[in-house]
């Protein structure tokens, strides 16, 4: 091989090696790739500013009922032999409504009356003998007297049992419901029909303690009935409880209709009650929030997310009262001016930074 050719190939290889080495060196000395820092995500949060609300601005859901109502039942068991009325019938006080088979009761009464007749004769003879001749002792007379008294009691008891085979109307009214058919076997205290006085109707509602209706006797209200649209009926407070219910911590309030304006209002109709404040200056206020703001914990308590001055979410346990439509009364642990998250609360965490925003309905 030509020595000059060999030297040429070697030189080219050396040049190629130098180029490759230079490229690798430049690559190694280049700037390290920069890792971009990700800014923390700020969660947008729909909030509402806590504000006091007038009690009369609230509405209360209620149900129309008869002021006088009776669930009618027999005091004893037996077989129905006659139901003298049907649903919708108007009845008068004392009218016979239903009867049980009374044959056994009549037989028992006849036997008790016969026993009374015999013991009465025995008692009169013994008393006459004791008073005239004292041929019998006072103790023997007492025994006869006791038997006579027991016989009288048995007759009275038999009469009551015979009366128990009948149901009569305790007041004037309308048969609103009949729960059994004739000839059925019924048990003692089993309701067989319901009697209502439709001439006196009222509405029952449940309210929180801050609402004025619970403590002001002359407070009035207005009722709107879903079955009779575009009409309002005046109500007058009748009764209210002084102890809250154990489960909802609300007070029961009953308001009576003043004038039905000729409309046929019936028990069971849904009513919306709007309180009317007679003294607006003394009217109580309360705080409400949307139901969507509440978060339950695993202990059965409720809390909300309050946004602090640093736009961070803070957990705040609250006491709640009555629910009205889509809002609930907050009875403790919130004050006007505080900002509460009212949507997406399940994804909020303690200390999370949020960006409060306002919707079109006034929430901020």
From TrEMBL:
Per UniProt, residues of the Multidrug resistance protein MdtA-like barrel-sandwich hybrid domain are 70-192
Q: Which GO terms describe its cellular component?
A: efflux pump complex
- The Multidrug resistance protein MdtA-like C-terminal permuted SH3 domain extends over 287-345
InterPro entries linked? MdtA-like_BSH (IPR058625), MdtA-like_C (IPR058627), RND_pump_MFP (IPR006143)
Q: Which is an annotated GO molecular function term of this record?
A: efflux transmembrane transporter activity
**Chief subcellular location:** other
Signal peptide residues on this chain, from the entry's feature table: 1-23
Q: Where would you find this protein in the cell?
A: Cell envelope
| Coiled-coil region list | 102-168
Q: Which UniProt keywords apply?
A: Coiled coil, Signal, Transport
Family, according to the entry, reads as follows: Belongs to the membrane fusion protein (MFP) (TC 8.A.1) family.
PANTHER family annotated for this entry?
EFFLUX RND TRANSPORTER PERIPLASMIC ADAPTOR SUBUNIT, MULTIDRUG RESISTANCE PROTEIN MDTA
Please identify the protein, giving its name as recorded.
Efflux transporter periplasmic adaptor subunit
The major lineage groups are: Bacteria, Pseudomonadati, Pseudomonadota, Gammaproteobacteria, Vibrionales
């Amino acid at each position: 091989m030509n020595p000059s050719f060999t030297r040429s190939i070697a030189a080219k290889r050396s040049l190629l090696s130098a180029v490759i080495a230079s490229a690798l060196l430049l690559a190694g000395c280049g700037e390290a790739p920069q890792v971009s820092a990700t800014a923390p995500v700020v969660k947008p949060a729909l909030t509402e500013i806590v504000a006091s609300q007038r009690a009369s601005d609230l509405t209360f859901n209620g149900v129309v009922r008869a002021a006088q109502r009776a669930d009618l039942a027999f005091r004893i068991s037996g077989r129905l032999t006659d139901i003298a009325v049907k649903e919708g019938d108007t009845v008068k006080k004392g009218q016979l409504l239903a009867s049980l088979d009374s044959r056994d009761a009549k037989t028992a009464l006849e036997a008790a009356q016969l026993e009374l007749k015999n013991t009465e004769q025995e008692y009169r003879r013994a008393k006459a003998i004791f008073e005239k001749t004292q041929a019998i002792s006072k103790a023997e007379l007492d025994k006869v007297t006791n038997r006579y008294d027991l016989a009288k009691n048995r007759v009275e008891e038999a009469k009551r049992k015979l009366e128990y085979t009948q149901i009569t109307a305790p007041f004037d009214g309308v048969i609103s419901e009949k729960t059994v058919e004739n000839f059925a076997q019924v048990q003692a205290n089993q309701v067989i029909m319901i009697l209502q006085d439709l001439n006196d109707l009222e509405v029952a509602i449940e309210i929180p303690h801050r609402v004025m209706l619970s403590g002001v006797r002359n407070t009035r209200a207005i009722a709107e009935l879903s079955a009779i649209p575009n009409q309002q009926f005046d109500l007058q407070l009748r009764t209210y409880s002084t102890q809250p219910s154990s489960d909802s911590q609300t007070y029961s309030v009953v308001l009576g209709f003043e004038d039905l304006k000729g409309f046929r209002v019936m028990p069971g109709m849904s009513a919306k009650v709007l309180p009317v404040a007679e003294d607006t200056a003394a009217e109580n206020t309360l705080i409400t929030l949307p139901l969507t703001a509440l978060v339950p914990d695993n202990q059965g308590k409720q809390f909300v997310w309050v946004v602090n001055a640093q736009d961070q979410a803070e957990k705040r346990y609250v006491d709640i009262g009555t629910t009205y439509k889509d809002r609930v009364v907050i009875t403790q642990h919130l004050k006007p001016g505080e900002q509460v998250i009212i949507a997406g609360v399940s994804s909020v965490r303690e200390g999370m930074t949020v960006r409060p925003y306002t919707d079109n309905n006034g929430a901020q």
